[in-house]
Amino acid sequence: MSTAERLQSLFVALAALAGLAAGLLPHVGPVAGHAVLPALLVMLTAVFVQMDAAHVGEVHHAKTLVAVSLVLNFVFTPALAWALGAGLLGGEPDLRIGLLLLLVTPCTDWYLVFTAMARGHTGIAAALLPVNLVLQLLLLPVYVLLLGGRAAMVDGATLAESVLLVLVVPLTLAMLLRWASARFGGAAWRERRVTGPASHLVLPLLYAAVFAMFAWQSRMVLEHGADLLALLPPLVVFFVTLPLIATGLSRVLRLSADRAVTLTMTATARNSPIALAIAVAAFPDRPLIAVALVAGPLVELPVLALLAQLVRPRRPAPATPEPHSP
């Protein structure tokens, strides 16, 4: 593991802190807000371009992983989110709804990057993304109505924008890059000039996206800093419980190392950018709901960076050749 990979959790935290500080400067926050989505798109394109499309088809041979991930994300997690909100945020209905919006939305952007960093199965991870995205947006009003007390209706434009911008656009660009580079330069040239350099871009782009996200929301964090403290206990419980459950199930089900990583990441990572957009659209007069979604990444991103190192399969040491007998 390189030094950059070993220190990635520290760099993610530093990028978040630097973003919070920079966002307090005049005009920085609004400008940073426009940089979040482009940084995510370029970052995901760099991840997708390294992925062989043939690997996505392996999802058909990973039915156990897919089934368990769906149960964790859409049955167990909503129940846990309700219990955490009711037990720890009972007197704060807006924070409860914000926590619910955050926890019931599985990630469709950061997750793939951290899965790749942890040497998970990126093909299965990519195949899970559209399923997670569509299910979370279809079920979100149901979850909030049943568990939060008020429905957050999601319009078709939000769904279309999320699918097209966050998934389809970078995937299409990556496929075109892979095809064109192999067609005109050959597979070896593509590895040397496209996929190799792309692998070195992912971490810097991740730090840039984290910096921009926190700079964008810096003033909201400052204005509601006391409210963020109430969110820390349920967030810590969630981000400790889900990785433990996912890794435990992986052992029980005897999943391969890369699939165990994929299950752990999809069960842990949350979709705060999309959840934040939905909260702003559905609850424009209740800023504390959005505050919960800003607080989430403060805990989530350092946890994912650390988790990527903890669950990463270790590469076997090269075998030492036996000495020849004289």
Automatic annotation (TrEMBL):
Keywords: Cell membrane, Membrane, Transmembrane, Transmembrane helix, Transport. It is found in: Cell membrane. It is a multi-pass membrane protein. The chain crosses the membrane at residues 31-53, 65-89, 95-114, 126-146, 158-177, 198-216, 228-249. It comes from the Bacteria. InterPro entries: Arsenical-R_Acr3 (IPR004706), BilAc:Na_symport/Acr3 (IPR002657), Na+/solute_symporter_sf (IPR038770). Gene3D superfamilies: 1.20.1530.20. Belongs to the arsenical resistance-3 (ACR3) (TC 2.A.59) family. This is Arsenic resistance protein.
